[in-house]
Amino acid sequence: MKNDTWGRVKQQLLESVGRNNFANWIEPLELTKVDNGVAVFSVPTSFMANWVSRNFADTILTHLKAANAPASRVEFKVAAHQPQPASSEPKPAAAAVVAPVEPAELPGAPLDARFTFDNFVVGKPNELAHAAARRVAEGGPVTFNPLFLYGGVGLGKTHLMHAIAHETRTRNPELRVLYLSAEQFMYRFVQALRDRQMIDFKQIFRSVDVLMVDDVQFIAGKDSTQEEFFHTFNALVDQGKQIIISADRAPGEIKNLEDRIKSRLQCGLVVDLHPTDYELRLGILQTKAEAYRAQYPGLQFADGVLEFLAHRISTNVRVLEGALMRLFAFASLVGREITLDLTQECLADILKQSDRKVTVEEIQRKVSEHYAIRLSDMIGPKRVRSIARPRQVAMYLAKQLTSRSLPEIGRRFGGRDHTTVMHGVRRIEELKGTDSQIADDVEMLRRALEA
Ligand code: ADP
Ligand code: MG
């Protein structure tokens, strides 16, 4: 085979593997010879030899055959280094050149020292997620991969992931643990592309033992990042490495995420952190108050203050913590016992905000669950009655329970017009008078949402 045949085949490969893959994996290949039906390519690193032979060998061979090259197999050999000029040292043996490169520093995000299992308060809404996180942190054979944690803002996803990282590092210090947000993953990826460091990038990400990617919904709609994420993910799963992912919703509900990624994410264990309930909120408040009082022994709470907060502040633990912190600061300034009055005065704005605690998304989720339809259908285009009616119920509740305007509600229902929302709201108002089943459903849902 002549080198210009390879030149032509390369052009076709560019089309079939895409520009990114081509630049990273095909471009650097050099055809050295075709011997006895074996096309031998030289590649710069052993990592690359491995990767190309696992991922692109078949494609390359197919194209070679199509171009009538006399090849029935392809091989990738690591190119020996250029001999050192004027050196009396013996040349390094080929094996030395192939020796794995020392893995570089991991490009992870720093861990918050407070986010440990010890500091995580367990209650009904998060017990499953907590148990799964504990199991993963114990190490040992990988039983579910990935562990996918999802739930609303401030429910403890990041906390649990950091806790897994801390625990893994303590138990198995030799393991390479990498934690970062999906946004940081994208940033590193783009940087590597720009600086032509894709090989290093891939090498680093494929060398970890535990990979954690937080807030993966961020890469939805970002095509080349998704692609790279998918390959990283598969490479690690193939090697039996543990992956932990978090998102603000279930894999199937993330819009603009490729189907193959969704299905991969669903392959392991998917657990959700439910919105906190009263008991869990009180537990968290008590734990944090205790810790604070250990530092400032003079601090006193009047009876019922923590209970009041647990009742009145929304499900988001971050808001809860913020409120408590403010209260502590205030109390230590004025040097008084924290009474209910003081609490209400000091937290007036937060309390007012959490009065409007029901969101359109929660309503959609609850209503979908109640009628056993998919959340995606709730906001999707289907118009069959079995879906349209629950959708109208959700619109009605959104109008009743939130302060959103009709156009705002429409937008949250897959970009529907405000007149559609108005029609839905009216329809349910009418039906409530004539259809007792609908009236019961609406009442039950309202109570559940306001609880
Ligand atoms: P998410 O990543 O789900 O948005 P975070 O993990 O950042 O939420 O949690 C928000 C804050 O609430 C953090 O300060 C975290 O320590 C705290 N937090 C959440 N859940 C718990 C819990 N069960 N026990 C103690 N603290 C919690
Ligand atoms: Mg988070």
UniProtKB/TrEMBL annotation:
Residue ranges of the region described as Domain IV, binds dsDNA: 332-451
Transmembrane segments: none
InterPro entries from the UniProt entry: AAA+_ATPase, Chromosome_initiator_DnaA, Chromosome_initiator_DnaA-like, Chromosome_initiator_DnaA_CS, DnaA_C, DnaA_dom, DnaA_N_dom, DnaA_N_sf
Molecular-function GO terms, alphabetical: ATP binding; DNA replication origin binding; lipid binding
Keyword annotations of the record: ATP-binding, Cytoplasm, DNA replication, DNA-binding, Lipid-binding, Nucleotide-binding
Example of a GO cellular component annotation carried by this entry: cytoplasm
Gene3D superfamilies: 1.10.1750.10, 1.10.8.60, 3.30.300.180, P-loop containing nucleotide triphosphate hydrolases
All residue ranges annotated as the AAA+ ATPase domain in the record: 143-273
Domain annotation Chromosomal replication initiator DnaA C-terminal: ranges: 359-428
GO biological-process terms attached to the record: DNA replication initiation; regulation of DNA replication
Compartment(s) of residence: Cytoplasm
Region span, Domain I, interacts with DnaA modulators: 1-94
Pfam families: Bac_DnaA, Bac_DnaA_C, DnaA_N
Residues that hold ATP according to the record: 154, 156-158
Record family assignment: Belongs to the DnaA family.
Subunit note: Oligomerizes as a right-handed, spiral filament on DNA at oriC.
NCBIfam families in the cross-refs: DnaA
Function: Plays an essential role in the initiation and regulation of chromosomal replication. ATP-DnaA binds to the origin of replication (oriC) to initiate formation of the DNA replication initiation complex once per cell cycle. Binds the DnaA box (a 9 base pair repeat at the origin) and separates the double-stranded (ds)DNA. Forms a right-handed helical filament on oriC DNA; dsDNA binds to the exterior of the filament while single-stranded (ss)DNA is stabiized in the filament's interior.
UniProt free text on domains: Domain I is involved in oligomerization and binding regulators, domain II is flexibile and of varying length in different bacteria, domain III forms the AAA+ region, while domain IV binds dsDNA.
Protein name: Chromosomal replication initiator protein DnaA
High-level lineage: Bacteria, Pseudomonadati, Pseudomonadota, Alphaproteobacteria, Rhodobacterales
